[in-house]
Amino acid sequence: MSPPPPEFDHARVMVVGDVMLDRYCTGPVSRISPEAPVPVVRVGEVSDRPGGAGNVALNIASLGAAASLWGEAGRDEAGEALGTLLGAAGVECHLALRDDRATPVKLRVVSRRQQLLRLDFEDATPAAGGMDWRAAARALPGCGALVLSDYARGALAGPEPLIAAARDAGVPVLVDPKGADFTRWRGAGLLTPNLAEFEAVVGPCDGEAALAAKGAALIKDLALGALLITRGEAGMTLLRPGVEPLHLPARSREVFDVTGAGDTVIAVVAAALAAGVELAAAASLANIAAGIAVGRFGTAAVSAPELLRAAAGERGGERGVVGLEQLRRALDEARGRGEKIVFTNGCFDILHAGHVGYLEEARSLGDRLVVAVNGDDSVRRLKGSGRPVNPLDRRMAVLAALESVDWVVAFDADTPEDLLRALRPEVLVKGGDYPGREAVVGREIVEAYGGEVRLTGEIASPSTSAIVRHIRGSSKG
Asked: Which residues does 375 contact at the CB level (< 8 Å), separation at least 6?
């Protein structure tokens, strides 16, 4: 069965990194300035939100997990505002306030939910040397995950001792990196660069095969646990040593604002891991959360109830007749949620009670059932002239209507072997009328990668061929 929803309220995550304040000045535009051809915004509202590592901590707290934030800010109005906002959200703040640095502020001028201008108020050069993280290292025991949120402002200039301390404490380290030098993140459990950041380090990637190959090389070179590459409209790709790449398609129907989407991704992955969720399922949740976040304006936190509702909708909404590539993406998403894929195939020319019972039993062997259906030419080759009685589109439509069936896909070959190689289901099922597992076509393929082959129990029902012979005999009489 599918894994239960994460218990975020049992999770504890430490966030360390660069903090800043996101400030929004919002109002209507009614005229163009007489001084220059620019719109005049009559500011009606000024609102502040935590940015950088603060936004990561806020996202974690919004999920219901315990979040602690370690960083530094200026002893100024913006620094005070940050502490107030994060404290009100339930984030445990450990901000070192400095007299020699100003809190970075990103001021955005907005009208009708469109950003017209951004002004950055910050010191020209990052702080040198990084922070002294010894106090944070002492607080690591009991944490389910450590997030290093790097915005190239200097706080994480020397993260190696903190990474080593987390590894000694058995705490997974997740890094949202910046810049073209990833060597300081050596030994981290997960890096979450976007595609541009990843390519700045490894070079251009022409297609998913190159992405996977260069990612595998980077994982080996830096002794990383995994890479989660966010790819905009192409979704996300999770790369792990010795495991097939997991490509998660983008879930947002409309992208409104990508501000803070990377913060949402790493926050959800960290909170899910701290709640005991496997990495692939955590990445799938993060992909869904990112789809929610980019559909909103500005840095936006996603709550646990809306994330879990969206995840439940994903499970229930992906069904029906699909093409091969669409099915591949759906299976990646399902496996990301920890779901077990069952596969069966056949002609299914005239659906009868035996078929229904067989498919219900097959579905009970896992979480999702894929039914592959022989094309019309294939059925003629296998069953002879006059078959199929029902053309492919009708056979697929009837199968897709069954509650036990999740996806229906067609294939033109006489055997499903190419499909099995492409989809790699965890379970291959055939009906109990087979003489034995050894006779199941594709058994060697499935068992070679660790899958299993199962036969269902026999259900007394006439075969499709017998039904066709009966109908033809009745019509002659």
From this structure: 392, 410, 411, 412
Hey, how many other C-beta atoms are within 10 angstroms of the C-beta on 224?
23
How does pLDDT run across 113-155, given as a tens digit for each residue?
888 999 999 886 666 666 778 899 999 999 999 999 999 888 8
62/134 Cα distance (integer angstroms): 27
- Could you please report the per-residue DSSP string of 321-382? E--HHHHHHHHHHHHHTTPPEEEEEE--SS--HHHHHHHHHHHTTSSEEEEEEE-HHHHHHH
pLDDT score recorded for residue 133: 83
Residue in 22, 150, 263, 349 annotated catalytic: 263
What's the average model confidence in pLDDT over 91-106? 92
Query: Which residue ranges make up each domain of the chain?
Result: 8-317, 320-476
CA neighbours closer than 13 Å in the CB half-sphere of residue 349? 19
**In the chain, what percentage of residues exceed pLDDT 70?**
88
Q: Is 8-317 a CATH 3.40.1190.20 domain?
A: yes
Question: Is 332 an annotated catalytic residue?
Answer: no
Closest Cα to residue 293, out of 318, 266, 316, 315?
266
Residue 137: Cβ-neighbour burial (10 angstroms; 0-12, 13-18, 19+): buried
Range 270-287 burial, b when 16+ CB lie within 10 A, else e = bbbbbbebebbbbbbbbb
**pLDDT band for position 350 (50/70/90)?**
confident
Give, as one character, the DSSP assignment of residue 6: P
Cα 47 to Cα 171: distance, rounded to the nearest angstrom = 35
pLDDT tens, residue by residue, 392-411 = 888 888 898 898 999 999 99
Q: What's the rounded Cα separation, in Å, for the pair 47 and 431?
A: 63
pLDDT per position as a tens digit, 27-36? 999 899 999 9
Instruction: Concatenate the DSSP letters of all residues of 372-408 into one string.
Output: EEE-HHHHHHHH-TT--SS-HHHHHHHHHTSTT--EE
Which superfamily, per CATH, for 320-476?
Answer: HUPs (3.40.50.620)
Listed range (96-110, 201-215, 315-329) with the worst mean pLDDT: 315-329
